[in-house]
Amino acid sequence: MVGVFVNPLFMTEEPTILSNKSNNIDTRDLTLHFNHDMLVVHRRYEVVSIINDVLIGIWFLIGSICFFYSSLMSIGTWLFVIGSAQMLIRPVIRLTRHFHLKRLPQPSGDF
């Protein structure tokens, strides 16, 4: 689950992934190009973890506010369940950061 949140109001065209070898960018960086601007995301897993933490905080804050009103109590409960599920995602993101699968080159068939 790697993503970059970009406000679509400021986009004038579809983002394109650039070659990371140009511009001296680390190959693990995610690079998006918007017209004359370039968005480089370093440490992708750390960014995903931070976004996840922010969302957890939002769900728990809104859920807590919902508990002030009896009519919104079930919505608040569901927001707590969603936040709790995202708390389980946190260690998965941290583990994913340490494990990477690399695709081995396919044999050419010539022996």
Overview of this protein structure:
With 111 residues, the chain is mainly α. Helix content is 44%, strand content 11%. The protein has 2 helices and 3 strands, in the order E-E-E-H-H. It has helices at 44-66, 73-98; strands spanning 16-17, 30-34, 37-41. The chain has a 3-stranded antiparallel β-sheet with strand order 1-2-3, with no helix packed on it. Helix 1 packs antiparallel against helix 2 (73-98). The protein is elongated and about 70 Å long. It starts with 15 loop residues before the first strand and ends in a 13-residue tail after the last helix. Mean pLDDT is 76; it is low at 1-22.
Structure characteristics:
disordered N terminus; mainly alpha; 2 helices; 111 residues; elongated; 44% helix; 3-stranded antiparallel β-sheet
